[in-house]
Design goal:
- A two-stranded parallel ribbon has the order 1-5. Strands 2-3 form a two-stranded antiparallel sheet. It has a two-stranded antiparallel ribbon with strand order 4-6.
- It is globular and about 65 Å long.
- The longest helix is centred in the C-terminal third of the chain and has 14 residues.
- Helices cover 31% and strands 8% of the residues.
- By secondary structure, the chain is of the alpha+beta class.
- It has two domains: 235 residues, no CATH class; 105 residues, Cytochrome Bc1 Complex, Chain D, domain 2 (Orthogonal Bundle), CATH 1.10.760.10.
- The chain starts with 46 loop residues before the first helix and ends with a helix.
């Protein structure tokens, strides 16, 4: 029972077009910076390190303005055509704790000037901008929080208090990229096909299209490899996304994928330890009281232990922590995305906070937990009765 329910990436941010992406350099014989999936790291959990990591997660663009401003000119698009209502429609979030109290209920949410004002005070989650005295956006970039933070909607949908680590399932990455004039009609068609909450972190590398569900970035402290296909630990993926997807100014090398990007100064690598420590500090949200049937979940727990726990070790864990990978056919999954990666297989996903981030599986092909259970009952030939499936669903809701 391995619902790869997008629990794996620490940060997955906006992709760029293949035409605009910095071309990977040909891999050479040296592999001095080759990432390894078995790296063992110890977090510095000092208050200073966690504070630095939080700032990096929320605010650091790693110099990616070189792409979003200089190449895509997203700053011009936002300044001229993206009012707050449009921004909320494509899933951007506003941190209600930044603007003066009550101001969001008074401003014109149909004016792009209001968006510029929100950017000037750094109130739009995951987007950083420099705004001059004439209220023109001169520089604009994105941060980790764009995809891996949301808000609690306490003011209105899309506006509220930050919730770091929660996936932004309303964010329409493709629609945002398609707003820019620097992509072709064919590329816009691909981006527009993704829809809210999905993103392909390899499209600008290989030109193929298999969008993934944006994952949570919480509850990862006990997970050895955080990516769907276990290429490496969380700092590996942070570096991959920062350099190849955010188009930050830094270094990422993986000769297994033929990617060798080295930029000086490197504005990414030195920040990875603090970023990892902060991400590892983000606990999965607790299951709300009364949201599942306790007696049914207890029966489901016993079923889970008999049918699923050999891979989901300890209920929420993963056998990938002991080095196990799985071919897509083992779980009835589409292997198209896996074939584009270094390992060509999927790892078992740790299960946490399943109650709050449907859809499930890496590609979002299971809309509900009932769909997850039905899929594995069929593929794994579990022979569950309707009552047993119900009990198993209630247990999954409790995780």
């Amino acid at each position: 029972m391995r619902p790869r329910a997008s629990h794996v990436i620490a940060i997955t941010l906006l992709a760029a077009s293949a035409a605009c992406a910095p071309a990977p350099k040909a891999a050479d014989a040296a592999a001095d910076k080759q990432p390894t999936a078995s790296a063992v790291v110890t977090d510095d959990n000092s208050p200073q390190s966690l504070a630095d990591g939080k700032r990096i997660f929320r605010e650091d663009t790693f110099g990616d303005e070189q792409f979003w401003t200089d190449t895509l000119h997203l700053n011009d698009v936002i300044e001229k055509a993206v009012d707050p209502t449009t921004a909320l429609t494509v899933g951007l979030k506003v941190d209600a704790d930044v603007p003066p109290p009550g101001i969001l209920k008074k401003v014109d949410l149909k004016s792009p000037a209001t968006t510029v004002a929100l950017l000037k005070m750094n109130a739009i989650v995951g987007v950083r901008a420099t705004v001059d005295a004439n209220n023109h956006i001169t520089r604009l970039g994105v941060t980790c929080a764009l995809c891996h933070s949301t808000v609690d909607n306490s003011v209105m949908p899309g506006i509220g208090h930050r919730m770091d680590g929660w996936p932004n399932r309303q964010l329409n990455v493709g629609a945002i990229i398609a707003l820019t004039p620097a992509v072709t009609a064919a590329q816009k068609a691909v981006y527009s096909s993704w829809g809210p909450g999905k993103y392909d972190p390899r499209y600008n590398i290989d030109g193929k299209n298999n969008p993934l569900v944006i994952p949570p970035a919480y509850g990862l402290a006990d997970t050895k490899n955080e990516t769907y296909t276990a290429e490496g630990p969380i700092s590996y993926w942070n570096a991959y996304v920062a350099v190849t997807q955010m188009h930050a100014h830094g270094t990422f090398i993986d000769d297994r994928l033929g990617i060798r990007i080295e930029q000086t100064p490197d504005m990414v690598t030195a920040k990875l330890p603090a970023l990892r420590a902060y991400q590892h500090s983000l606990a999965a949200p607790a299951t709300p009281a009364g949201s599942f049937d306790i007696a049914s979940a207890e029966r489901g727990h016993r079923l889970f232990d008999g049918s699923c726990a050999s891979c989901h070790i300890g209920g929420k864990g993963t056998d990938n922590n002991i080095g196990v990978m799985h071919a897509a056919a083992e779980t009835g999954m589409d292997n198209a995305y896996a074939l584009r990666t270094a390992n060509k297989q999927y790892r078992t996903t740790p299960l946490r906070a399943l109650w709050q981030h449907a859809p499930y599986f890496h590609d979002g092909s299971a809309a509900t937990l009932a769909d997850v259970v039905s899929h594995y009952d069929r593929v794994r030939k579990l022979g569950l009765t309707a009552a047993q499936q119900h009990d198993l669903i209630e247990y999954l809701k409790s995780l």
